[in-house]
Amino acid sequence: MTTGIHKDVIPQLEKIDIRSDRPLIITDADEVLFNFMEGLELFLEENDLFFDWSSFALHGNIRQKPDNTPVENERLPALLDQFFEEYAHRLPAADGAAEHLEKLSRHAQIIVLSNVPPKYADRRIAGLRKHGMDFPLIANIGAKGRVVNYLSRNLDKPVFFIDDIPTNHGSVKKHADHVHRLHFIADKRLADMLEPAQHSTAHLDSWPDLYSHIINIINED
What we know:
Elements: H1 10-15, E1 24-27, H2 36-46, E2 49-51, E3 62-64, H3 76-87, H4 97-104, E4 109-114, H5 121-130, E5 137-139, H6 145-152, E6 159-163, H7 166-175, E7 180-183, H8 188-193, E8 202-203, H9 207-220
Parallel strand pairs: 1-4, 1-6, 4-5, 6-7, 7-8
Antiparallel strand pairs: 2-3
Helix pairs in contact: 4-9, 6-7
């Protein structure tokens, strides 16, 4: 069942206790629970950089203030590593995320599946706890479909996957097509750049909408 899952993720999965008789919500963190772009813009400002907003991608859109030239691609990994080190524990929470997850936790088990670098998992956990979202975290590496399939393999109740990245919805459709795939982007500027994810089962615009959609399916089960 763990074929194709990164070796550093498998021990995290083995520690997760999942009940087969309760619905499961697997949620991303950045741009779902946290305002990633708001934090990134603050970080860039501190480093004399800015985000251009020409497209959804980071490559080519992080630019240097003095001359507007894009940061070289080879510099981006180190820059993003510095960002996670400084901001993973203090990103602002997405509007309504904590409130509605708390209500959903009365009806479902919740797991945060984030592609935060594993070495910053403790900082991500601190950020979750700070905002009242103290749920188990899996610091994932790579595509999410096989991990979602592993987590949901023995469940008899509805399973929900929430993510902002279209390719993650494609991966979950490929490996765990039984899962409700909910596309949500907290930052409206990013949301306006993207069509609803092709392989999602629904596109929602707010946490109240996510809550209503999920609770209706749970109640119908």
